[in-house]
From TrEMBL:
PANTHER family recorded: MANNOSYL-D-GLYCERATE TRANSPORT/METABOLISM SYSTEM REPRESSOR MNGR-RELATED, TRANSCRIPTIONAL REGULATOR PHNF-RELATED
This protein's name: Histidine utilization repressor
Pfam families for this protein: GntR, UTRA
Gene3D superfamilies: Chorismate lyase-like (3.40.1410.10), Winged helix-like DNA-binding domain superfamily/Winged helix DNA-binding domain (1.10.10.10)
Length: 235
């Protein structure tokens, strides 16, 4: 079984402390130098982990203060249909392609328990007419979709594969504007810190988690349109 990269494990450890409430909003997390000592690794490894958390909006880096746990954003709930990226690109009249950047099979962490015991973790770059369109980080439950372990996601993108083989009965979308970390910015051809639209999606089938996915779009290249219908009891 492939080993989880150290920077990802550090990020998950910090995320777990935040999720548990041990590190509340506004709490200043240990410095990169302190985390380097704690994990016995290079400072670049710690920096990459913290950058991922900052890109996901879990922590905020502040000059002269350090890195603090972010306050939950104010958000509203709405029924929004977000299409598969391949369908979205093709609907714009562009040629779709994708590049599988990483794939590992690993045990699910404590905060991923809804996905079962084991997951596939994928990193995918989506392209439109050969240019970067979105960077995607996805977890797929092997409890809900055991056949995914043998799937060739370099030939078929995971989003389309799941839509065809694992239809969901419940979904949750979260939308936020974030700055691109170094890795995402490089993949999308942006400057580090450039504003991106991040879509986080979680799906379930009859109570069993199917997938969790984080998609990063260049802010100037993507817009979100929602159509609403008034309730019958509204005037």
């Amino acid at each position: 079984m492939d080993a989880e990269p150290l920077h990802r494990r550090i990020a998950r450890d910090i995320e777990r402390r935040i999720a548990s409430g041990d590190w509340a909003p506004g709490f200043r997390i240990p410095t990169e130098a302190e985390l380097t000592v704690e994990y016995g690794c290079a400072r670049m490894t710690v920096s990459r982990a913290v950058s991922e958390l900052a890109a996901r909006g879990l922590v905020v880096r502040r000059r002269k203060v350090g890195t603090v746990v972010a306050h939950p954003p104010v958000h509203s709930s709405a029924l929004v249909a977000i299409p598969d990226i391949q369908a979205e690109v093709q609907a714009r009249g562009l040629a779709y392609s994708h590049r599988l950047m990483g794939r590992i099979v690993r045990p699910a962490s404590a905060d991923e328990a809804e996905l079962g015991a084991r997951v596939i973790e994928l990193e995918t770059l989506h392209l439109a007419d050969g240019l970067p369109f979105a960077m995607e980080h996805r977890l797929i439950s092997l409890t809900a979709t055991p056949e995914a372990e043998a799937a060739d996601f370099s030939a078929e993108p995971a989003g389309g594969w799941l839509l065809a083989r694992a239809p969901w009965t419940e979904a949750e979308h979260r939308i936020s504007a974030v700055g691109a970390d170094r890795q995402t910015a490089e993949a999308l051809g942006l400057e580090a810190g450039a504003t991106c639209l991040r879509l986080e999606r979680r799906t379930w089938r009859d109570g069993q988690g199917v997938t969790r996915v984080w998609q990063m779009f260049p802010g100037a290249a993507y817009d979100l349109v929602a159509r609403f219908s008034p309730r019958k009891d509204q005037g």
